[in-house]
């Protein structure tokens, strides 16, 4: 069936996709934290940012833009540092909101006016690891003798978005359950938020040292 659409080794693709999607990363952690702190609606807005970001990166891979970034050290370095700076910024902001703003008795503007969609979208688009993934992983499952490879990209992208939707939905509803527990354990809630802030800073450090 899928071979007729220019997609080969589809089961290998799905297994690889499963492990890639469930691997912890800044996108999934941001969606989980948003759902835990702000609820289901904001969690899905953050997830939508991830979906749109993935779709844009897949389209860029199809156009060859992702290959250009991969083979142009200056562009790759620029995207890498932009992503690292943004992750560091989010990590510091979370730590500030969690420890300093709360200690001063303020409700952080981060929590009140958060642009969940745009932040998740920015996280996706400034992650060169994702760009490299769409270039190197997708092409292994496309039959380039097929006349309409855009259909093959569309099929692979649809599978990715569907699996990502299921996984992020589990995180969103899991996050709301966790939130009920943490409402009674404010000390643990602050500790959890602090660890998430440190995770983002760790992702920033790892991204800054990533090589093409």
UniProtKB/TrEMBL annotation:
Keywords: Cell membrane, Membrane, Transmembrane, Transmembrane helix. Its main location: membrane. It comes from the Bacteria. It is a multi-pass membrane protein. The chain crosses the membrane at residues 12-32, 44-69, 81-101, 121-142, 154-179, 191-209. GO terms for molecular function: L-leucine transmembrane transporter activity. This is Leucine efflux protein LeuE. It comes from Aeromonas media. The gene is leuE.
